[in-house]
Each structure stands twice: as structure tokens, then as C-alpha cells.
Amino acid sequence: MQATEWTISQHLTADRQAFVDVANRLSDEEFQRHTGDKWSVADVIQHLYLSARPVAKLMTGPREVLTQWGKADHHPKTYDQLAAEYSAVLATGMKAPTPFVPRPEDMNADKQVVIDRFTEVYRAVNDALAGWTEQELDEYCMPHPALGKLTVREMLYFISIHTQHHLNRL
122: which residues sit within 8 A by CB, 6+ positions away? Predict the structure, then answer.
């Protein structure tokens, strides 16, 4: 998927649907199965939900909240540039920070509940995107635990890149 050929919304929709399709093909047991120290598909979906939820909240809240991270101090990175940066960070062995790691109590939910949570947060991000101008996407910033300060556009690219990373590992 070439980033230049797709809108952010199309990326997020396609990524979400690809994950849901994978999850729906699995039995409940397969969905929850851990192999060694690797996360189950349920864990991965919960991790993606936990990662996207703060973005949805920030994008639906007042823009003034985002000013605490300042305005963009760089030209927006492309999807491919950000993907390369994320790949380099992953190569260092960086793991998900604790707030984005699925907790056992989160995973006691039914498979469909986990999938629905994930679906809804991706839809919320997409719905919020409709209220942002192109200029605002490149002006306002959010913090990323591994990549530092990203513009809102870059953060949306990251959600897609992150989802693709986990899809490719399944």
C-alpha cells in the first residue's frame, strides 16, 4: 500500500478491517493463544486499542490541550519516512511502555468485546479526523513514547504503521 495513493482515513479503515478479518478467522482458543512469550492476537488487538485511544481522546478534545506540546517545529514527515524511523526504533529492541501493554484483566472479555473495542477506537479516530483541517494536522503535536513529538498527521500515520507492523507479525 503506497501512502501517497491512500488518504489517512483509508489507511486506518483498511488496517482496522484487516485486523478484524484475521481475528474473525480464528477460534476463541486461537484468538487467546500465546506462543512462548509472544502476545496472542487478543493481546495485540488490545495493545492497538490502548495505543490509539489517547489519540482519539486528544483529537476529539479542545485544540488548546494540544498546545502543551507546542507547535510543529519541523516539516511533516511522510508516511514512508515515519515508517523508516519506527523500524529503526524497533531494531533497538524497544518494547511497548506499560500503559500500552494489555493487562490480564482486560483480556477476560469475550472475543467480540475485544474486537468491538478496537473497532470503535479506530472509528473514533477516523470520525475525529473529519473535524481537522490539513493545516491543523500539520500544526498541532502530540507526544509519542518512542518517536518524540509528532504532528497529528504523523501520529495518524503512526497508527497505520503500527497496525501494519503487528499485522505483518501475525
Answer: 12, 13, 15, 16, 52, 159
